[in-house]
Amino acid sequence: MAGEAPGQPKMDEMRATLVAALQSAASGQSSSVKTIYDMTSAKLYGICIRICPDREAAEDVLQDVYVKIWRRAGSFDPARASPISWMAVITRNAALDWCRREGRHNITFQDDGIDIVDDTPLADFQLEQDQQYSRLLGCLDGLGSDQSRTIRRAFLDGLTYQQLSDASGTPLGTLKSWVRRGLQQLKACLGDA
User: Fold this and answer.
1) What percentage of residues in the chain have a pLDDT greater than 90?
2) Is residue 176 domain-resident?
3) Are both 96 and 36 inside the same structural domain?
4) Average pLDDT for residues 179-185, to the nearest whole number?
5) Quick one: pLDDT band at residue 129, thresholds 50, 70, 90?
6) DSSP letter string, 135-187
7) What is the CATH number of the domain that holds 147?
8) How confident is the model at residue 4 (pLDDT cuts 50, 70, 90)?
């Protein structure tokens, strides 16, 4: 098909496998959680370890995440989000909740501090590199610099609005408005009306 990204059929296949596994989990088949885990654990652990500064805590949060995914699988709607995006949001929220419970509000992220060896198949990496990811980055680049930076730090680095406000000296209400307007622009850019 013209214009299709290289590897796109493989991406579609992996997405379909994840959707089917989530639907099986929703119907009570706990064995499908293994498929979900095998395909997503590297990415979701990466989110946990970026937000939770402690490896043991990140592992505990990840375990909690898979319990939540299994329990909430019935609420997943493939028409509204990709399976990996839906699970990434659950993971981010669980990691932030852990930080709040532990009183860790001043989280610093160090990109060079942690080397995680991943010997699993590259399914998660490929999911991230598909055409939608490229479109998202293009749309993010099209936002104003304040909106783009704020959205990236909130959703990719796991910072809360309060942390972003404190770090930038921007009023909380202004920051929330940037994010809200930026997300609306992203939605329009991606064509997800």
Assistant:
1) 17
2) yes
3) yes
4) 86
5) low
6) HHHHHHHTS-HHHHHHHHHHHTS---HHHHHHHHT--HHHHHHHHHHHHHHHH
7) 1.10.10.10
8) very low
For residue 41, what is the enclosing H or E element? helix 32-51
CA atoms within 13 Å, Cβ hemisphere of 52: 27
In which domain, by residue range, is 30 found?
8-104+119-126
How many structural domains is the chain composed of?
A: 2
Range with the lowest mean pLDDT among 15-29, 62-76, 156-170?
156-170
| Contact of 158 with 89, CB cutoff 8 Å | no
CATH of the domain at 78: 1.10.1740.10
Segment 64-84, tens digit of pLDDT: 999 999 989 889 888 888 888
Residues 13 and 99 in one domain: yes
Contact 123, 14 (CB under 8 A): yes
The owner of tokens 């989110």 is 47
If 0-12 CB within 10 Å is exposed, 13-18 middle and 19+ buried, where does residue 30 land?
exposed
CA-CA distances (angstroms) from residue 26 to 29, 30, 75, 89? 7, 9, 8, 18
CA distance 190 to 107: 31
